[in-house]
Amino acid sequence: MLLVLLLLPMCWAVEVKRPRGVSLTNHHFYDESKPFTCLDGSASVPFDQVNDDYCDCKDGSDEPGTAACPNGSFHCTNTGYKPLYISSRWVNDGVCDCCDGTDEYNSGIVCENTCKEKGRKERETLQQMAEVTREGFRLKKILIEDWKRAREEKQKKLTELQAGKKSLEDQVELLRTLKEEAEKPEKEAKDQHRKLWEEQLAASKAQREQELATSAFQELDDDMDGAVSVAELQTHPELDTDGDGALSEGEAQTLLGGDTQTDAASFSDRIWAAIRDKYRSEVLPTDLPSPSAPALTEPKEEQPLGPSQPAEEEDEEEEETEEEEGGEEGEDEDSQETPPPVVPPQTVSPTEEDKMPPYDEQTQAFINAAQEARNKFEEAERSLKDVEESIRNLEQEISFDFGPNGEFAYLYSQCYELTTNEYVYRLCPFKLVSQKPKLGGSPTSLGTWGSWAGPDHDKFSAMKYEQGTGCWQGPNRSTTVRLLCGKETVVTSTTEPSRCEYLMELMTPAACPEPPPEPPASGNRDEL
Amino acid sequence: MDAAEKISVEDEAVDKKIFKDCSKIAFYRRQKQRLSKKSTYRALLDSVTEGKESTRFQIINEAAKVPLLAEVYGIEGNIFRLKINEEAPLKPRYEVPDVLTSKPSTVRLISCSGDTGSLVLANGKGDLKCHITANPFKIDLVSEEEVVMSINSLGQLYFEQLQIPPKQSRATKENEEDTSDDTTQENQEELGLWEEKFRNFVDVKDNGPASIGLDFSLHGFEHVYGIPQHAESHQLKNTSDGDAYRLYNLDVYGYKIHDKMGIYGSVPYLLAHKLGRTLGIFWLNASETLVEINTEPAVKYALTQMGPVAAKEKGRSQTDVHWMSESGIIDVFLLTGPTPSDVFKQYSYLTGTQAMPPLFSLGYHQCRWNYKDEHDVKAVDAGFDEHDIPYDVMWLDIEHTEGKRYFTWDKKRFPNPKRMQELLRSKKRKLVVISDPHIKIDPDYLVYAKAKEQGFFVRNHEGGDFEGVCWPGLSSYLDFTSPKVREWYSSLFAFSVYQGSTDILYIWNDMNEPSVFRGPELTMQKNAIHHGNWEHRELHNIYGFYQQMATAEGLIQRSKGKERPFVLTRSFFAGSQKYGAVWTGDNTAEWSYLKISIPMLLTLSVTGISFCGADVGGFIGNPEAELLVRWYQAGAYQPFFRGHATKNTKRREPWLFGEEHTRLIQEAIRERYALLPYWYSLFYSAHVASQPVMRPLWVEFPDELETFSVEDEYMLGSALLVHPVTEPKATVVDVFLPGSSEVWYDSKTFAHWEGACTVKIPVALDTIPVFQRGGSVVPIKTTIGRSTGCMTDSPYGLWVALSTKGSAVGEFYLDDGHSFQYLHQKQFLHRKFSFTSGVLINSCADKRGHYPSKCVVEQILVLGLKKHPSSVTSHSPDGKLDGFWITAQFLT
């Protein structure tokens, strides 16, 4: 059960002729000849309970002039300035809230009436604002016209480009066919050339082998009897096959194919191939050519270097690990200076005859013709790409949402800067926002264009730039740009209300609303 | 870029490697190692002398042979004091000054010798006795023939006597036999006698080992509380499985919860409670201190022969408390209760009561690191009015200064601090700015230059000014332990000295553990030197206490002794309650930190510090809207109510989380403001009668065992039970309503329950479970203004909740809210309300007080009437009530 008592000194009851805290518009609800009905209709009380400092109505309407109701409103007339509703809890709380001071009638403090002064200032500000708005709006209309024209021009250009693009495409196709036709004979001639060269190379290699065999045979044939015997072969212990360091009779015989001796012809045909890798010449140990013939060095064609990409990365990682483990031994294999010991020294450098001879005139002519066709084709392809790029840019710009009438379009390719104590802030509308230390250093991105970000009814009053440089242990930087009406386009302030969330203000005529049809009269007006 | 940016400890979650655990503390290792080699002390009772104040006798350790001097004092209000010191130390040992409010009045103890080998000291009435046994040395505290506490019954008395350093002693060694057997090189490392290493730091100890220790066995006690500050449960836990509770003031950013490591402040005071008895042990020592707790419950579970069935074995419960300190003397006060209220009075008799806060400081405080500039301050201030949310105090963190030079203003951001304060003043609001103990080393900074010139800084071991890194970069630290330094520091707050300050500016002391960014455990080297040539190790835990003392004194002096100060401090010690408020430091925006704030504040409250709070929302990190709302709801019912957030968090002023959440936060803050008359009356009771404002249930229900471990709800005064919601997406909370003869009323729905039961309370996001206890009267404000100053004349209401017997009592205190006139001119009103047999009587509770007030009581809510009243009338003894008229409205 709940019991509510009210203890109140009578002297607090306020004489009510014009109820305190009631606005002019609501005055007729407070008729002292009738009981008062709460404005929400929830109850009806005798009129002397209006402003008696006790709350009767749920909506607080019976106490417009006291602080008794938690949800009541007190109306200040503020003659000379704007009328105002304040929370009725602020009545008589010792703080002057109304410029006419009517909210503090019983708190012991004296509030100066500042309405006149505030009204004068407000009028000045409003006049200035109105002037700015008028001028800004005039400029805005020009901006809109400019964009209309610019847009038409751009549209025209776009159409032209699109038309041009078609013929360019045809040309590219034509040039591609020409190129391909020119490349056919080129390829054939080049292949032929290479084949010839490779045959030559093979022949000369065979001949070299034959010469080596012959000279080895002569070396082995110690008694010059035109045959190499088992004993003669045994003078070359490096030919050992079982790894004991000596060439036994049996081994030698096996090498000779089971015979006790061999003549020059069959030595060169059958036996040389088996022993050539181990055989050490008695004369010049370095004379032997490498078993793995030197890489064919070709004049033109590029050879991919090293193994495939991922393998290479792995190698690098391994190397790093090795280096960390402290040795400088793990050098890159490509740069190894000493070959494995078993392989005979191979200092044979590519000789003249290893290089492919220059193309003959005929082939070279084919190549030149093909190259010219390729160049022409590529050039055409580049122009096509350029045109496509221009088209894309134009399409993007034309279709960009530059506001209801395109008034913001003029900002598209501009940048604006604001210098503060520490930083230079740079806003390139519809592109990005950045911040750069004044005393040098690289810029930090405060976000790239995201979207219009004003409230639903006023979408074009703010822009949002997102996904800037990440903050240390925090979010990516972002910036909201508020657009304010002004005669000029200028960034007026930049703040960081929350960490890494920036707020920038940009003045622009494009943000100016249409001023009221008639400029405000400068006569005496009590209420603004 | 300034140094602080580079140093920046922020955002590092607490790195436990920076801080020591017990195994890294040499004196802990020494005591553990040596106490295991049992060598007991014996009292030489033939040496007893009875002085004017104390009874003295020697105690001697058979191994050490050098006697110690023990003194037992009887102190007014059923307190015993035991001091143990070296009889003739090489040089004086540190005894903590300035904590006891005055020299406690002693009462003569009557000695009646017991058997041979014992001595009995009794108080005048003879109901309290100290029974001293000679061999082994032991003291039993006997109350009405019941032994409630034994001292040294476990033989853990430990006292390292000061020695001559080994270099010197080697020179004299030929003559004297070296008694110490463990100064060998390898032992030195382990025992840290003359040098102690931790990470890269070496603590060189000129005085050598000087630690002390003593054990206390509490008979029949299973519940112990106190020894803040730890992010731990209210009831102290058994430490036998892990680290001891550590008391060592440290700056631990984002401290870990449920941990016994030391954080910002220390009160070496422990309370024990059982049915029928509450005790206190106040260990007056300001050096690093460790407390081990070992509780043996009464009911033991043992395996029987029948198998793994637990069988109850009834035994006598006991809690052993083992105190160890690095230095100083043993100086311990035994508070014998017997009730919780008696123990609170006994403790405040020694250390002082809670300062009476200015009324504004009980309102809501809005803080952030940092409100950037005057414009920002203006906008936030306007935001509160725009959203009609009351608040009283705007706060400015370190960035308001010129390069973290305290007592200065950043001229670019705060070009006109007085204008800014005038704006706040016009709404009857206040400003709090920060002032830390580190002073930037900069000869052009006047505060530095003056302090340097006069030798006011703490010195390093080598004798130069101590230099450490903190917010401003390299800094020196004011030596607040010196009365001269304090006097000078206080003078800096004079309006003529502190440029840009006005009488609505108050102070916040932060980083005063002291925090030293590159120091050992982020604090000062223990061998730094203070006033009187005392090493920092002797007084580390009291450094912050002294800064707050000097700040509060400065604020009093600037008003020529007229106005009450408000000073918030992060570091504190026993007695800090005399100087202002304390908060729980750098907490985190997580539900678990909201939850732990309750036991942390309850612990502070029972150790004398009633004016305490935790940062609403959590200092570190970004709370989601629900957590923020719940935190505001909890904070509205905690004594110090401040929203705060660290630098890199998102803005979180109450209106930034959507309309619905704004409304909920507004609601919570308004509830706080409605209850301000009750809060203020509770603080008066804390101030004059030593009763904590925020009370654990066991304090109000000391005879109900079920309340002893409760820490998710608490009493605000004796009338309101608060159970904040600390879980996400809660739809129901289990509220325990204690007291079998009690009745409880939901403060919003007025639903009521019988006590001694747990009820399931459904909760929505706007629910703050608060219950009024039947039998209480709570004074409130019926209309809420935008700040406490704006509500001075607004009317009052009374919530009368009837007990099962249909009665209720309550008190109400009122004064001007800001001056000392309540004290010096007795300008206050202290009223008592009692409701019996259908009559509510408003009478005077303290006839000495007078205070004129325009205020009226406009609403009286009576809960629990059995019948509809047929009429309501009012009477006044002087008949002056003519002018009152009455309407009655009945709700059922």
Task: Explain what the structure shows.
The complex is a heterodimer of chains A (528) and B (892). By secondary structure, chain A is of the alpha+beta class. Among the domains of chain A are: 16-112, no CATH class; 216-280, no CATH class; 409-511, Cation-dependent Mannose-6-phosphate Receptor, Chain A (Distorted Sandwich). Chain A contains six helices and 16 strands. Chain A has helices at residues 115-220, 230-233, 249-255, 264-275, 309-324, 361-399; strands at residues 2-5, 8-9, 36-37, 44-45, 73-76, 84-87, 227-229, 261-263, 416-419, 423-428, 432-437, 444-452, 462-466, 478-485, 490-498, 501-508. Chain A has an eight-stranded mixed beta sheet with strand order 9-10-11-12-13-14-16-15. In chain A, strand 10 and strand 11 (432-437) form a beta hairpin. In chain A, helix 1 (115-220) runs antiparallel to helix 4 (264-275). In chain B, helix 6 packs parallel to helix 7 (417-426) and helix 9 crosses helix 11 (543-558). The radius of gyration of chain B is 28 Å and the shape is globular. In chain B, the strands form eleven sheets. In chain B, strands 6, 7, 8, 9, 10, 11, 14, 16, 19 and 22 form a ten-stranded antiparallel beta sheet that branches. In chain B, strands 1, 2, 3, 4, 5, 15, 17, 18 and 23 form a nine-stranded antiparallel beta sheet that branches. In chain B, strands 35-34-33-30-26-25-24-36 form an eight-stranded parallel beta sheet. Among the domains of chain B are: 22-160 and 209-215 and 260-304 and 311-351, Immunoglobulin-like; 697-773, Sandwich (Immunoglobulin-like); 774-891, Immunoglobulin-like (Sandwich). Chain B is an alpha+beta fold. In chain B, 19% of the residues lie in helices and 29% in strands. The chains are: A alpha+beta (528), B alpha+beta (892). Chain A binds chain B through residues 1-12, 53-54, 67-68, 70, 87, 89-90, 92-96, 107, 421, 471-474, 497-499, 501, and chain B through 11, 388, 412, 426-428, 647-651, 750, 783-786, 789-795, 856-865, 868-869, 872, 874, 881, 883-892.
